[in-house]
Amino acid sequence: MSQEPEYPQEPDYPQKPEFRPHRVVVLALDGLLPFELGIPHRIFGRPRDAEGRLLYEVVTCSIRPPGPVDTDADFAIHVPNGPEALATADTVIVPASYELGPVFEEGVLTPELADALARIRPGTRLASICTGVYVLAAAGRLDGRPATTHWADAERFQRLFPRIEVDADVLFIDDGDVLTSAGVAAGIDLCLHMVRRDFGTAVANDVARRTVVPPHRDGGQAQYIHRPVPDPQWATTTAARAWALGRLHEPIQLRDMADQEAMSVRTFTRRFREEVGVSPGQWLTQQRVERARHLLESSDLSIDQVATDAGFGTAQSMRQHLQAALGVTPTTYRRTFRTGTQGNGSESYGSVGAAP
């Protein structure tokens, strides 16, 4: 009896993960601020991969069935999704509201809000803008963790939630799976930070350009800058900052920067902090970290060369600064975002950021 000829089997190639945009669900509560509700839609509704696919899907939900939700303005909005949308989220964002009732007054959730939040899956990333932090705090998601809110409300928030480490001096705090921000424009900084954390600086910078906002304000920058618009008769530190940005690859001393403005070091340091919100040294480190991130994402330079071009001097120094700022090594960052920014789908989400 003749046998069927044997043919070599086709090799079993691994399947490419199916593309799925990261789902951001924005929780709209009565008394919400329309501006802050719009921030996540504006920021997360823009990023696309190399094939033109939206990297995020943004939906809005309320704690009730679809219908109107009051705002703090003279109009209501129609919210098309009920609380069941929270169960589908990869990230949940709670914008500010002025009508939180017992959440704001006593630090406890209403039964309706508690039932809605219980739908959120374990491991979902949580974020708040301004007084939205009260909701996360009342839900027990911030106990023993750092958090921030609008500087004018921070003292009251701390009294109501003594187990939370409240920092009233920063724009936002990234604590891994929970992020909180100060009010209004700081919500933009927070959302851009999450885009940068998910897909790298190139994608975040593109969103910032389209939104016509600064591409990066570090979370540790002060909420309230004493002199945000210098008096015309006062000298500023603008020229020194421009001078330093053109020489990040060189050693820069504080004296060098002060000389650009013909100021003493003491006067320059005070004026710089008043205008920028951080010290000259902190600002220089932030700029060098951003330069290193850009080079790691966009060039084939060696780690040593990136460290030199960014002004860190040695790979070890750069590794320490990136580890402190991002929670990862330069090699890990490059491996993530040299591929992550090309739009590989949801497998790259949340891979870089502060450790929980």
- The helix/strand series, from N terminus to C terminus, equals EHEEEEHHEHEHEEEHHHHHHHHH
Tell the overall outline: globular
Low-confidence stretches: 340-356
**What share of residues are in beta strands?**
5-15%
Question: How many angstroms does the end-to-end distance come to?
Answer: 67 Å
Helical fraction: 25-40%
Distinct helical segment count: 14
Largest sheet data: 6 strands, mixed
Decide which structural class fits the backbone. Answer: alpha/beta
Keywords:
alpha/beta, 356 residues, disordered C terminus, 39% helix, 6-stranded mixed beta sheet, 14 helices, two-stranded antiparallel ribbon, globular, 11% strand
Structure description:
With about 350 residues, this protein is α/β, with parallel strands linked by helices. Helices cover about 40% and strands about 10% of the residues. The strands form three sheets. It has a six-stranded mixed sheet. Strand 7 (about 145), helix 5 (about 155-160) and strand 8 (about 165) form a beta-alpha-beta unit. The radius of gyration is 23 Å and the shape is globular. The protein starts with about 20 loop residues before the first strand and ends in a 16-residue tail after the last helix. The model is unreliable at about 340-355 (pLDDT under 50).
